[in-house]
Structure formats: C-alpha cells, structure tokens
Write a structure and sequence with these properties.
Blueprint: H1 3-25, H2 29-76
C-alpha cells in the first residue's frame, strides 16, 4: 500500500469516527427530525425533476404543433 492510500484511508476512518460520535450525541428526536427533513428534501427534489421533465415534453409538443400549423398555413397560400 502506498503512503498516499494509507493516509487517505486513515483520514477516512477519522472522518467516519467523527461523524459517528456526532450522530450518536444528536440521536433521538433531533436525528429523527433531521432524517425526516432530508427525506422531505429528497422527495421535493424528485418532484421538481419530474415537473421539469414534463414541462420539457409539453414544450416540445407545443413547438411541434406550432411548426405543423405553420407548415400547413404555408401550403394553403
């Protein structure tokens, strides 16, 4: 194992230990509230992405209809 990898591994273990102690101290109601908030944020993000995809599809359909109607009016003239 190179020294760089060993150092990264050591830093990672230290980071995990800090996170573990922090979460252990703040477990209970605060932890549950944080988890619930994170889940809520995740759902909101997914909802926004779905809405954005739907808007893009709708916009594409609207543009196609405009293009087709424009072509038809040109043929009529």
């Amino acid at each position: 194992m190179s020294t760089r990898i060993r150092k990264k591994k050591k830093d990672f273990e230290k980071y995990n230990q800090v996170i573990y102690t922090k979460t252990k101290e703040k477990s209970g109601r605060i932890g549950n509230r944080r988890r619930a908030f994170n889940e809520f944020e995740e759902r909101e993000k997914n909802r926004r992405q779905r809405e954005q995809k739907m808007d893009e599809k709708l916009n594409l359909i609207v543009n196609m209809v405009k293009y087709i109607s424009g072509v038809l009016t040109q043929k009529r003239k």
